[in-house]
Recover the amino acids of this structure.
């Protein structure tokens, strides 16, 4: 009998865990028994029946239970490493092959006589004897372990398959989950309001968890595979309901407080006219009207400004900043990285040169004495506009009169971080910017507490960018193409994939590439280098030289992704393009095509790229529509990878998947709105809000929902 534990108990006290395994689980944010219960299977295998090898059909995806005969590495004539395994059952022999899987040999994973479950797509071997094979099959070595009650968790049932965590295999995780369910004895506290459960005929939480991990034998496999069993739907609805309710509660709270009532003065209008570099588009005019209307309202503005690359979001945000400054208030602009903050500072400083405003940059890398002076100026009101990173939300940063907060690329911050900055005013208006077009379903979840403005047109002088995919063998032709364009007076970017500026090896490679291009490829031109580790003054010098066409070629890392506007730059060559995400490639491409001339984006990628990388690159060649690109990137990589690994703004859903569960999200949002407006009783409302306050800050940053 498993020891009785509370859902909130530390997971290390669960039978089979201990301190070592608890550390592995903590890497996946699993610290309590309840956290573990929400680590749900990603697929299921019906092991009540497996397919005999003799009955396998090419093209079929199935599970086979077979005994290992031989296993070991082989090399093809082309030098490709393959781990080849032969297995048999009473009806025949199956071959399984894994490419570049040296770990199977190194760790001696397979040995003759082992009984193994293989799951994958069956094919006929075109090079061998015509035998059936599985390429890259998933596998699980059968171990005859049983539960305390004598049940097998591996055969004779629908078996949950979990993603491994460190050295914790699916089999180990199965036993841990069984123990977790037994230790809580079905007493996981209900979190959904009773009226919501009854109205929507949802099962209780404990039953839903048990049946999600260990389904009944008659559960339809197709429903399990699509996460549409009653148990799975209950858990998905629960997550989406709680997030929706938290955001709606925060929105209600924000609308209930008194904000700043800005005035659009003649001096503000004149200042705006002085900085506008071109006649605004209709979409920009519409966006600024919506923003200014919010600013003139007595309620605090909470608005999202969404627009594709090159649509002119920054100039719209600056107009809002001018309104706040001309009313005597300070403005804070927070960017997610020092690179982006620096680029914003350099470009905004240039735009605001005609105006007498004081602005500065607050980032962690500045010298302590500089930061201390800067913080004093902010506190005394000596700065009108402060641009920075997370350094802006440090406790010792105090504003004299903060009136407007602008948050760039909000999806890379936590909701809680946005509110830490907001608390430095009483209360300020908030404008959130994103250059990543976000599908509506994801926007509802990320920005459910914000009103939305969309800039959905580009300035009229922009020509469509021609995008071409090149192999590495075609690189010399690409360089020659750049030479021809530069001789015509145009300029070019060459982008190198230093994804993280802290990666010294990649950064050294970018530096070497700059030296190679400057000395050997383009000796007749001045070639400059820009990357995130350059001092601010050096970045400023490089960008000024490039903008003035003193240096017609700029070798850069992704530092140019945001905030660089050089209309004369008509060519961008992106090296190792297969290493970038689709949305990031689209962002980079948006640095060109900003003038009247035709622009070209050249993507150089290796032949050995993955199938997914090829899909990304082909999508970029085929379309320039940011929303289509975002949808495709989201489908290819999922929300977490779409915005970078575990970015703060993405809710840490444990079972819900926004692309798959759009219908449940809409349903959960409707139910959350209905419950908050018409709860079953005042007591039910207070009990639910108390749960939300207590249980969700760690996962969603909803520490101040009501």
């Amino acid at each position: 009998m498993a020891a009785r534990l509370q859902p909130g108990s530390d997971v290390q006290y669960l039978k089979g865990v201990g301190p070592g395994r608890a550390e592995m689980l903590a890497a996946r944010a699993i610290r309590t028994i309840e956290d573990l219960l929400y680590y749900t299977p990603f697929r299921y295998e019906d092991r009540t029946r497996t397919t005999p090898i003799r009955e396998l059909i090419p093209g079929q995806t199935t599970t086979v239970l077979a005994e290992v005969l031989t296993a070991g590495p082989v090399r093809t004539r082309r030098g490709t490493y393959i781990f080849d395994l032969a297995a048999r059952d009473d009806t025949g022999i199956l071959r399984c092959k894994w490419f570049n899987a040296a770990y199977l040999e190194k760790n001696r994973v397979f040995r003759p006589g082992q009984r193994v479950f293989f799951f994958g797509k069956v094919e006929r071997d075109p090079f061998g004897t015509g035998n059936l094979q599985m390429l890259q099959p998933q596998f699980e070595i059968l171990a005859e372990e049983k539960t305390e009650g004598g049940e097998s968790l591996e055969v004779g049932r629908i078996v949950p398959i979990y993603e491994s965590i460190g050295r914790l295999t699916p089999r180990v995780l199965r036993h841990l989950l069984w123990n977790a369910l037994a230790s809580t004895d079905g007493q996981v506290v209900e979190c959904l309001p009773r009226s919501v459960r009854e109205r929507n005929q949802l099962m209780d939480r404990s039953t839903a968890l048990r049946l999600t991990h260990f389904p009944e034998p008659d559960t339809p496999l197709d429903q399990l595979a699509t996460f549409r069993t009653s148990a799975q739907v209950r858990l998905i609805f629960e997550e989406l309901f709680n997030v929706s309710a938290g955001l709606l509660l925060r929105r209600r709270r924000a609308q209930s407080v008194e904000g700043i009532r800005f005035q659009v003065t003649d001096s503000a209008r004149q200042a705006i006219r002085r900085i506008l570099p071109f006649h605004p588009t209709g979409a920009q005019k519409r966006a600024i009207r919506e923003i200014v209307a919010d600013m003139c309202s007595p309620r605090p503005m909470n608005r999202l400004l969404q627009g594709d690359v090159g649509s002119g979001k920054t100039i719209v945000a600056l107009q809002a900043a001018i309104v706040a400054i001309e009313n005597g208030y300070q403005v804070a602009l927070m960017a997610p990285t020092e690179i982006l903050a620096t680029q914003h500072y350099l470009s905004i400083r240039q735009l605001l040169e005609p105006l007498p405003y004081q602005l500065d940059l607050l980032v962690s890398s500045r010298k302590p004495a500089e930061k201390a002076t800067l913080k004093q100026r902010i506190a005394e009101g000596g700065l009108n506009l402060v641009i920075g990173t997370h350094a802006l939300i440090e406790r010792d940063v105090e504003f004299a009169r903060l009136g407007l907060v602008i948050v760039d690329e909000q999806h890379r911050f936590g909701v809680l971080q946005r509110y830490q900055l907001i608390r430095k005013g009483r209360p300020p208006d908030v404008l959130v910017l994103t250059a990543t077009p976000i599908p509506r379903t994801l926007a509802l979840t990320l920005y459910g507490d914000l009103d939305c403005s969309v800039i959905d047109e580009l300035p009229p002088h922009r020509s469509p960018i021609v995008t071409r995919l090149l192999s590495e063998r075609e690189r010399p032709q690409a360089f020659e193409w750049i030479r021809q364009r530069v001789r015509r007076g145009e300029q070019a970017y060459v982008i190198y994939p230093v994804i993280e500026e802290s990666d010294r090896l990649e950064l050294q490679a970018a530096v070497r590439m700059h030296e190679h291009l400057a000395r050997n490829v383009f000796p007749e031109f001045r070639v400059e280098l820009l990357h995130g580790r350059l001092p601010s003054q050096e970045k400023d010098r490089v960008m000024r030289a490039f903008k003035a066409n003193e240096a017609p070629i700029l070798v850069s890392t992704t530092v140019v992704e945001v905030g660089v506007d050089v209309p004369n730059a008509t060519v961008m060559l992106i090296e190792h393009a297969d290493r970038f995400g689709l949305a990031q490639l689209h962002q980079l491409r948006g640095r060109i095509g900003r003038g009247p001339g035709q622009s070209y984006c050249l993507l150089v990628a290796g032949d050995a790229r993955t199938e997914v990388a090829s899909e990304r690159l082909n999508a970029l060649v085929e379309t320039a529509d940011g929303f289509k690109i975002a949808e495709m990137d989201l489908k290819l990589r999922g929300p977490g990878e779409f915005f970078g690994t575990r970015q703060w703004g993405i809710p840490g859903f444990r079972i819900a998947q926004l692309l798959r569960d759009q219908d449940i999200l809409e349903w959960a949002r409707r139910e959350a709105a209905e419950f908050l407006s018409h709860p079953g009783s005042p007591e039910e409302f207070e009990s639910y809000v108390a749960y939300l306050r207590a249980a969700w800050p760690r996962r969603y940053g909803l520490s101040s929902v009501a």
